[in-house]
Amino acid sequence: MKISICGATGYTGEELLRILASHPQAEVVHITSENQTGADINSVYPHFGHIYHQTLTSMEQLDVVAKDSDVVFIALPHGHAMDAVKTITGHGKKVIDLGADYRFADTSVYEKWYKVPHTHKDANAVYGLTELFREKVKHAKILANPGCYTTASILALTPLVKNGLVATDSIIVDAKSGISGAGRGLNQTYHYAEATENLKAYNIGGHRHTPEIEQALSEFASNEVVINFTPHLIPMVRGILATCYANLKPGVSAEQVDDAFVSHYDSEYFIRLLGRGGYPATKNTRGSNFCDIGWHVDKRTGRVIVVSALDNLVKGAAGQAVQNMNVMFGMDELTGLTQVPLYL
Amino acid sequence: MKISICGATGYTGEELLRILASHPQAEVVHITSENQTGADINSVYPHFGHIYHQTLTSMEQLDVVAKDSDVVFIALPHGHAMDAVKTITGHGKKVIDLGADYRFADTSVYEKWYKVPHTHKDANAVYGLTELFREKVKHAKILANPGCYTTASILALTPLVKNGLVATDSIIVDAKSGISGAGRGLNQTYHYAEATENLKAYNIGGHRHTPEIEQALSEFASNEVVINFTPHLIPMVRGILATCYANLKPGVSAEQVDDAFVSHYDSEYFIRLLGRGGYPATKNTRGSNFCDIGWHVDKRTGRVIVVSALDNLVKGAAGQAVQNMNVMFGMDELTGLTQVPLYL
Amino acid sequence: MKISICGATGYTGEELLRILASHPQAEVVHITSENQTGADINSVYPHFGHIYHQTLTSMEQLDVVAKDSDVVFIALPHGHAMDAVKTITGHGKKVIDLGADYRFADTSVYEKWYKVPHTHKDANAVYGLTELFREKVKHAKILANPGCYTTASILALTPLVKNGLVATDSIIVDAKSGISGAGRGLNQTYHYAEATENLKAYNIGGHRHTPEIEQALSEFASNEVVINFTPHLIPMVRGILATCYANLKPGVSAEQVDDAFVSHYDSEYFIRLLGRGGYPATKNTRGSNFCDIGWHVDKRTGRVIVVSALDNLVKGAAGQAVQNMNVMFGMDELTGLTQVPLYL
Amino acid sequence: MKISICGATGYTGEELLRILASHPQAEVVHITSENQTGADINSVYPHFGHIYHQTLTSMEQLDVVAKDSDVVFIALPHGHAMDAVKTITGHGKKVIDLGADYRFADTSVYEKWYKVPHTHKDANAVYGLTELFREKVKHAKILANPGCYTTASILALTPLVKNGLVATDSIIVDAKSGISGAGRGLNQTYHYAEATENLKAYNIGGHRHTPEIEQALSEFASNEVVINFTPHLIPMVRGILATCYANLKPGVSAEQVDDAFVSHYDSEYFIRLLGRGGYPATKNTRGSNFCDIGWHVDKRTGRVIVVSALDNLVKGAAGQAVQNMNVMFGMDELTGLTQVPLYL
User: Fold this and answer.
1) What is D2-146+315-328's CATH number?
2) What is the CA radius of gyration of chain A?
3) A50–C237 CB contact, under 8 Å
4) Which sites are catalytic (chains A, B, C, D) (predicted)?
5) Distance between CA atoms of residues B243 and B214, nearest Å
């Protein structure tokens, strides 16, 4: 299968290249970068030595890219995918967008939170949280790949919301992310000497993954869900941990909570249930497409606390994108995604 | 002033030594360690070279220790302070206990959470969260120094609870701690290769700092406060960040929240208010006795989110202990505690 | 191919399991651990969830282990392999020992540096630095897998020594290793709070990899090579960087140095030459079987400086062991070893 | 004493501010920053909250700065000090330059290595490696503060060179530095996700601290010293470790080596000798002005290996600058420099 990547030198692009190198059906035909057009990918990322020998081209060649490809991954900043997607689908090719442009059913929500006009409102994109929307993904032509915080949060909360076990106005997601989530762009906050041995919250009440989580949970709830979402920056490279709080509805038992998770995820390869009392750790998922989930019922307060962990660059980005590609093209969903977590 | 430390080789003991070395009134007369009795403190901690040249003695010499000292700091595991405190106070000397043994007014709460019988129920200890209980601290003979998570959480929430601005059954504290909080004892979880690049929650619903936070907040509230407290282990050495959530009572304005913090803390040197919208970062407090606080009002959900940051070994342990000592002995409260945070 | 691992719960054992999970010909039949006999490998290493479901057995079952296996990997502390190897080879099965017991042609060198009697002097083991001894590896029944520092140092220096370009009494190897090289055993030195943000040398003049490097280089030199080898502990998990110094013989040109490296390694997949002026970085090899090499000629001092980088747990241990297995069993040498470095 | 700092927002400037806050004689009167003129230092470095409340001014006000100060610290990139120094000394005030502009007795060496014309050749600056040149420092008007690598290397090697114990053409310094040494400027190499878990050498044969080390050692040797100096970037914030190799002259005993160090440094407070067989660790010096030194005699190879450790921002920059200030103004040399290392 012929694959191209628009925006191959950002961290998400790098991860797509890393994962696709082990995908037996994948052939990477074009990779683009507007800043480093003409460079060999090895000069940008020397760890690809003896693996990739490919020259970066420009989005100006997008027609050629689309013609030569079966599917194009877009790993660009939000606001930049819409024109590209029109061109690629115009050539009859499928697109997987790893940014936010196609994640919202209601494009006015996108416009409000991202401050960018949406120019492709009739796109009919499918939201690709694979485990929850697999049937739709199979037929997707434009696939909106979810955000990293979003994937961790929605996977943790959906069984509770769908089964009506929690008060939907009581949900709080306290999320923690490794620094790679901020991407490759330079910034004082991510300068080594200032980022290490440090810890802080940011964007309280205003992070753009909030409405994305609310949209998905609302789809499974009987009412509109509004949540608190607080992201934190953790001094490590990879990993997201979402600690999710909700008030159990009166009379809901711990066993009902257990059943909700087991019945929802037991047959999913990429979801590893650690059970009630289980403690996911980001390290156990590092470099892999797994999402680990554990939950706790606190009788003193009547709350359920769900903790989920995943690798923000894999299940939270490039891995899930490849998982969606596998589904879209009728391949075994696990193809190229069986890399063992790099615990050490 | 003559000072001794029981349990000088743990991390809390080490920090006491570090801080007291810069305290102009302090003279360290005895330091004890049961594992390393007879060793020079320099052989245990070579960074004290050219600073301390002192031999570790044993608790078996506690009578001598007490006689030679004006105050004894106890930095032992919980359950080990009670006998020592009786001996020391029997010599008419003051004690500052950095463990949990004297933190609970109701000793049955201690016995329930710590699974140890309390053998000194009539101790009349004072709970030393200095900014909140300064008047009592002045007259303390037995000072119970608060826990690290506790200090961060109580300082963050007290202005809201005291002013009746939040629903006291809605409080959730999602706390994150550097690994030094777990002490010097060896454990697979804190082995470098497994602790770095990792993140997890632990003791959900069961951490022993929970009832300590509840006790202090209940004192300022009009009713019994029951909270959710979730600790997390962060791959860094020092620092605690507490992200605290509570539902604002109907009609409470953002300005009322601001006023509560400013009126409560504006004259406190060790509390730095970053204001509404402020983001504390643990790095800004590292090695110092500061606690930084910022708060956020989320109108979408009606919640207030307070974030506090401090150094778990300083304001969360040894620094606050010295602050309490200064108050107990009528010295300037800042003495020996003006070390600038080691940002880098 | 049926494979067993003696000592599967140490870091080297864990890496063998990680790598073999992606090896299309490998089937892991037995794994042993004397401390955790009877436990599921998932309870020891939860990151193997959904990948391995295997119970740890004991070395007491070694006869069964040997009978059921085509090859047995031994990942035990030095001194423990010799009895096991005799048993396994007694069953006509091949052995790959990742420890030091079979690395020395002259067993008295082993006995001198390791302070253990050698009880299997007629073993006829092959030293498995694959790129240098491939022909012998093909026919090995007992394969002595090299040490991590050793692999980095020997690969860096062999082209110079073999071509007679440097004074063999002038060689200094200043090596730096991530902390995983010290294994899973608990020790104050590797306790997170003490290992992070720290840097030190250790075992100067006495590290056991010294005679191993000298043995291999001497084989390629016209005389006995004696070197200085200084290991350092670096606050990171994976990676070795060896900075090697030698005096160029009079008249040797920079181009001769270049030729020595290119002619020696140009066709090797796992050796990536970065050329004269190139700077290997451990991150570029992380999780992979690559060794990256760059070199520098300093005309001011007449010295050549060679820098090599590799992952101590892969090319420096488990990866090279699998590479040797592939060669020993006539498989493509790259099988199961094409994992892309985890740069992030 | 009135002190100003030109370039107060770089890491060296920040450290000067940190140290001077605890210096009982110091009053900081002006701080400058060309990028952030007009800002409060607290908005640049919030950890200075409740400590400094000062507005950054510009070098355009240098006349006022000089008039108001007894001494001016210059913490600017090389090439920028010379004009400023002329202005400040023109006002009769002393200067301590933390950059390279005044470090070379032979300004043509500066011009060759730094590629900048030297415009102040008759400056009569004193090279401020305090322990070695204390008498000259007392009378300095322009003080050239040494580099970080330089201080570690020169302190390690001087006793050997001065006593003629080693072959001066055999010296190799393999040095390792924390990332703060690269300063606050943004660069992909120091981006958290790329700098952590990484290790590499750089500037082999060409680092500008090379001629500075050679100049100082040559002063103590009977001949011109030419060395190899290899710097490495270590994934930690603070600390330099220099591993120095030299061939002992025939007949030199280990005891002579011991004597050289002890007689040279035994009365120095900031030099802590760990003795023969001692292993300095950067963590033991963190945040302090100490330099720890240990040495090893390898009889197999006839070499001596000296290891020194210090904090690159303190003894390697701001701390030594304050030490020099103390000497220049006749104060106790330890004033303001007794901060205990922050081991944790």
Assistant:
1) 3.40.50.720
2) 20
3) no
4) 148
5) 16
Give catalytic residues of B, as residue numbers. 148
Give the span between the Cα atoms of C146 and C320, in whole angstroms. Answer: 8
The token pair at C132 is 């240098």
Q: Does D283 touch chain C (CB under 8 A)?
A: yes
- Residue of D186, D188, D192 with shortest CB distance to A196: D192
**What residue segments make up the domains of chain A, in order of their start?**
2-146+315-328, 149-312
- B239–A contact, CB cutoff 8 A: yes
Q: How far is B180 from chain C (nearest CA, A)?
A: 6
In chain D, residues with a C-beta closer than 8 Å to the C-beta of A195 are 192
The answer to whether domain C2-124 and domain C149-312 are alike in fold is: no
Which tokens in the block code for residue B233?
């282990």
Q: Is A325 exposed, middle or buried (0-12, 13-18, 19+ CB in 10 A)?
A: buried
Q: Which CATH number fits domain C149-312: 3.30.360.10, 3.90.580.10, 1.20.810.10, 3.40.50.150?
A: 3.30.360.10
Half-sphere exposure of C121 (CA within 13 A, CB side): 9
Residues in chain B with CB shorter than 8 Å from the CB of A153 are none
Contact check, Cβ <8 Å, C190/B187: no
Rg of chain B over Cα atoms, rounded to whole angstroms, equals 20
Taking 70 as the pLDDT cut, the residues of chain B under it are none
Chain A residue numbers with beta carbons less than 8 Å from the beta carbon of D197 are 237
- Give the CATH H-level superfamily of domain C2-124: NAD(P)-binding Rossmann-like Domain (3.40.50.720)
- CB contact (8 A) between residue B287 and residue D14: no
The answer, for A122 touching chain C at a CB cutoff of 8 Å, is no
Query: For domain D149-313, which architecture applies?
Result: 2-Layer Sandwich (3.30)
Q: Point out the residues of A that are catalytic.
A: 148
Is C243's CB within 8 Å of D196's CB?
no
pLDDT tens track, chain C, 344 positions? 999 999 999 999 999 999 999 999 999 999 999 999 999 999 999 999 999 999 999 999 999 999 999 999 999 999 999 999 999 999 999 999 999 999 999 999 999 999 999 999 999 999 999 999 999 999 999 999 999 999 999 999 999 999 999 999 999 999 999 999 999 999 999 999 999 999 999 999 999 999 999 999 999 998 999 999 999 999 999 999 999 999 999 999 999 999 999 999 999 999 999 999 999 999 999 999 999 999 999 999 999 999 999 999 999 999 999 999 999 999 999 999 999 999 99
ipTM above 0.95, yes or no: yes
Q: Is C6 a catalytic residue?
A: no
Q: How far apart are CA C128 and CA C138, in angstroms?
A: 10
